[in-house]
Amino acid sequence: MRDYLLRRLVSVIPVLFLVSLMSFAVIWIIPGDPTAAFLDASSTPEDVARLREMLGLDKPPLVQMAEWYGRVLTGDLGQSILLRIPVLSAILERLPLTLLLATLALILAVGLGVAAGTFAATRRGTWADQSVMSLALLGLSVPDFWLGLLLIVVFSVQLGWLPSGGYVPLLDDPLGWAKSMVLPTITLAVVQVGFIARMTRSAMLDVISQDFMRTADSKGLSGLYIILRHGLPNAMMPILTVTGIIAGALLGSAVVVEQVFALPGVGRLIIGGILSRDYPIIQGGLLFLTVIYLLINLVVDLLYATIDPRVRLE
Amino acid sequence: MSMLKVENLTTVVGSGASAPSVLEDVSFTLDAGEVLCVVGESGSGKSMLALTIMGLLGFPVRRAGGRIILDGDDITAGGTSAWRQRRGRDLSMIFQEPMTSLNPIMRVGEQIGEVLRLRKGMSADEARRRAVELLERVEIPAAASRLAAFPHELSGGMRQRVMIAVALAAEPKLLIADEPTTALDVTIQAQILDLLRDIQAESGMALMLITHDLGVVAEMAHKVMVLYAGRVAEMADVKTVFDAPAHPYTQALLASIPSLDSGGDRLVTIPGSVPGVGLMPKGCRFAPRCPHVKEACRPAPPPLAILEASQSVACLRPFGYVRREETPTHG
Ligand SMILES: Nc1ncnc2c1ncn2[C@@H]1O[C@H](COP(=O)(O)OP(=O)(O)OP(=O)(O)O)[C@@H](O)[C@H]1O
Ligand code: SF4
Ligand SMILES: [Mg+2]
Questions:
Q1: pTM (2 d.p.)
Q2: Cβ within 8 Å of B, A 224-283
Q3: What is the CATH number of domain B1-99+173-279+304-331?
Q4: Rounded to the nearest 10 degrees, how much is the dihedral formed by the CA atoms of A230, A235, A237, A240?
Q5: Across chain B, what does the average pLDDT equal?
Q6: What is the mean pLDDT of residues B185-211?
Q7: Which of A263, B166, B204, B301 is most buried, by the most CB atoms less than 10 A from its CB?
Q8: How far apart are CA B254 and CA A2, in angstroms?
Q9: Which of A210, A215, A227 to mutate to test the interface with B (most CBs of B within 10 A)?
Q10: Separation of alpha carbons B15 and A219, rounded Å
Q11: Is the ipTM of this complex over 0.90?
Q12: In chain A, what are the domains?
């Protein structure tokens, strides 16, 4: 198991290298002169030169790249042009909210999705199965920003039960905090519930038809015990894979949902950065989200190996 | 009194009165301490019989009629949950495929232990000790250290031994083994069969052993039931089956094994094949392949009739009017 962990950790390094290269290349990928957005008609050529120097654009690309890596390795992601604070602190300040939102949504999505998918699989072909799967398909097809707006209209505007947006810190007002998180979490989770439910159902159907499930039945164990103790763990591999993918998708959707619900998270920071061409923010934000994504998938792989002893051999 | 008494068992595929049968009107008895071998070609319904008795049929296959009386109680009477209570206590089964019959991600000790804890009410400690004993009983070396093994760490033979240990954990009154050695090497087959016979003899349980290997029958059986296309063709004690098979199908089965005394070159296969489910002839199901068929065989299936105390046969012309010794040999 320790060997497996080491091998897996080492394999992350080249990916990290590539990812940071791509974050760096953003500055060339986005069309237009990176300095244009910050300058107006009154800017002198000196202003332009100063900004280019600040962004490091005056040096040859290879040198720029080397410097970028050097800085990233020491944890320095540069200075936000607009906010005039270090990118790293801008991100770290907003990261907890984004992670919290994504984690809550992930827990909700996995819990509900696995339960719904398992339920449907054990009632294959019945109306219960069909209803659950139709709901899952519906959830899967709803665009997240649209759902967010719909929830706001119903629960904030019409019913007035929940705030339409904004963030209340947990320590200031726990109830207000909980209320402020409900709609964003649901919005974020709905699509993924559908996704996980469908995946779980098909994985469980595969497992249910296998010989060892009949063996378990031949032992006189209860149906629920067989499903939970023998079925689910064997269906967990594909479910975990999907969960890893979903964790990434959640980070992406969080960007949209933070915008809809006016939550000050990393997503909103990046969107703001894109709109105002604050390159250091874009670069740093993307790098951060990708690293988190990689970490999640590393954890997923380790969970594989914990659940299925055969994985460790590969 | 018989340990197992099966009466007029019928198993069908699908719903409705006209659903085609995979087992029809199967009746037999099996005493404690007895070994019954069930033989028949592929598709004759041997596995269906095992699963029906275990209560393990899966949709769309279902028992449409008949009773199964285990140690005096009708286990079909109480519905599926009462039947479930019998499994892992009075009834156990060993399956054909040792490679897939064990949960691949659960430790061997737990696969035995869950029967002991959840079905036999043992504590975790007791279950552990008993699991080691069971692994020792099925002759797995270094038994205690194997509790933590996963199935993929064991050979096919070892896995089948684990399956036997799982089945024995219940201390069943009836053990059903569905071709337990078919998937194994010849040398391992013999070891596993020896083990099964020893355990059966020492525990006194009834054993229903499904096989299509007549060599295994000769080794293991007290009684033999020959199934053909879901119906009992012949039921007899083992000596009678080999010495004086009455049903043309039994005779054909025996003729299809190479025998040493005729130089090993007498490999006759039965022409034709078992009719598919739903395509059964109205009368005797063996009629299309039977060398002794007469018009009288076609209108209705012949009932299982007692020839002598140890032999029943479902045939209108038992022995085909000709004893096997008098049949001209091929070659
Ligand atoms: N789910 C099912 N639906 C329809 N027919 C089935 C189903 N399962 C089995 N059958 C049919 O039931 C008949 C009996 O099958 P069974 O598996 O009991 O044969 P068997 O004697 O065990 O053969 P083998 O020696 O190959 O194991 C076969 O004709 C088979 O095609
Ligand atoms: S009943 Fe007739 S067809 Fe059937 S086995 Fe006997 S002789 Fe053959
Ligand atoms: Mg079979």
A1: 0.82
A2: 225, 229-230, 233-234
A3: 3.40.50.300
A4: -110
A5: 88
A6: 92
A7: B166
A8: 58
A9: A215
A10: 27
A11: no
A12: 95-261 (1.10.3720.10)
